[in-house]
Design a protein that fits this description.
Structural class: alpha/beta
Largest sheet: 7 strands, mixed
Distance between the termini: 30 Å
Shape: globular
CATH class: Alpha Beta
CATH architecture: 3-Layer(aba) Sandwich
Order of helices and strands: HHHEHEEHEHEHEEEE
């Protein structure tokens, strides 16, 4: 992988295993007092604003309370709540896994018979119950290592990979689409027929060529923005289900549904 884990931070790496209970609730509960951060001499105004947002983010607070390593855990919980992606006993590949928030959710949701392979370009603290693999998903060697670690086919491939932001919108969009394409190539190599694929993209949606490929390979395709994604963030997720199997891209293109949620407001349009 050529990027870090994106918006997955929520403080320190928390517990070594899964969250405190069950699959976990998908939204914070209760009220929290607002924390004010004073400007320090050695801290810029932008750093002060970022720190204040972090300290007052309900999902950051909830992640610490619920034992998750990052606030991103709630994004996966909300995707699953809406689309029923996570099944007991399934084998799942978690790309861009560090620091491990999605991995924790997966372990809780899949149960003792499930299998989780957490992959990241950086070393991450082990999550007991999950396999971890360090590798660049754009390299063939990483795909081979993933196939060997799975020892079979996966039911679901998840990618929360995102490149470091440059501030140049067009450049950032191209870079995250390159990661989404790499994740899709990997998914097509390791998914069993009927499997699912989820990848982070940025608003503006998925590039037409990539979206057309996903539609040919999967029975249904949607774009979803979980409530846990910050309202000022451009991130959203392309969710594809019903993998048709290798070689499906050579068949006729079929219509697929796009389900877009912007700032937690849902609506459905045909593509």
């Amino acid at each position: 992988m050529t990027a870090g884990p994106g918006d997955k931070g929520g403080g320190k790496s928390g517990g070594k295993g899964g969250a405190k209970s069950g699959v976990g609730k998908s939204r914070p509960s209760g009220r929290n007092l607002t924390v004010r951060v004073r400007t320090a001499r050695r801290r810029s105004t932008s750093s002060t604003r970022w720190l204040q947002r972090q300290l007052n983010d309900p999902y950051v607070i909830a992640a610490k309370q619920d034992g998750y390593r990052s606030r991103a855990a709630y994004k996966l919980l909300q995707l699953d709540e809406k689309l029923g992606l996570l099944k007991k006993g399934h084998a799942v590949v978690d790309l861009g896994a560090a620091p491990g928030g999605w991995t924790q959710v997966l372990l809780n949701a899949l149960g003792p018979k499930g299998r989780v392979l957490a992959v990241d370009i950086n070393e991450m603290e082990a999550v007991p119950g999950a396999q971890t693999l360090v590798g660049d998903v754009t390299e063939l060697a990483t795909e081979e290592a993933i196939r060997a670690a799975l020892g079979g086919l996966a039911d679901l491939v998840l990618s929360d990979m995102a490149p470091p932001a440059t501030g140049h919108r067009a450049t950032d969009h191209l870079r995250i689409m390159a990661l989404a394409e790499a994740a899709l190539d990997l998914a097509r190599a390791v998914l069993r027929p009927g499997g699912g694929f989820v990848a982070k993209v940025w608003q503006g949606g998925t590039e037409h060529a990539l979206l057309a490929t996903i539609k040919r390979d999967f029975a249904a395709v949607r774009h979803v923005k979980p409530e846990a994604s910050r309202s000022d963030s451009a991130e959203m997720y392309v969710v594809a289900t019903g993998y048709r199997g290798q070689g499906a891209g050579n068949g006729a293109e079929t219509d697929a549904e796009t389900d877009t949620e912007i700032e937690a407001k849902s609506g459905e349009t045909e593509t």
